Amino acid sequence: MACSPQYQEAVDQFCLSRFSLDLDQLDQSRWCDWEETLESYSELTNCSFVVALKLGCYWPNREVDALFVGVHQRYFSDCALIGRLLRDPPTQVCGPIIMGPVLVTLLMTALVVWRSKRSEGVL
């Protein structure tokens, strides 16, 4: 069942207000520290689920999506992805991964050329 407007009000009053208080008590520079915010974030998630359950709404739903997009825009938009950026693997790993197919291709090419020259005289 789709959620009523009461869902948004209840989530704002019971869940988001508590989450905002928790994060406002933290120094803003620590908002990006997952260990500092994990408990509050989990409580927000669980609270939004319980409110949906009590009101007979599906969870997750459009309102929940909007809630978490808003939370991320307000509290986590400036968080760097330090340590989570995709990087090339080290040369010791990347080299063999690249050289393997190159060597197989060269070997197969040489084998085909050798085999085609060898069978030319046989008919």
TrEMBL record:
Compartment(s): Cell membrane
Membrane topology field: Single-pass type I membrane protein
UniProt xrefs under InterPro entries: RAMP, RAMP_sf
Main location: membrane
Regions that span the bilayer: 93-114
Record-stated family: Belongs to the RAMP family.
Name this polypeptide is given: Receptor activity-modifying protein 1
Originating organism: Knipowitschia caucasica (Caucasian dwarf goby)
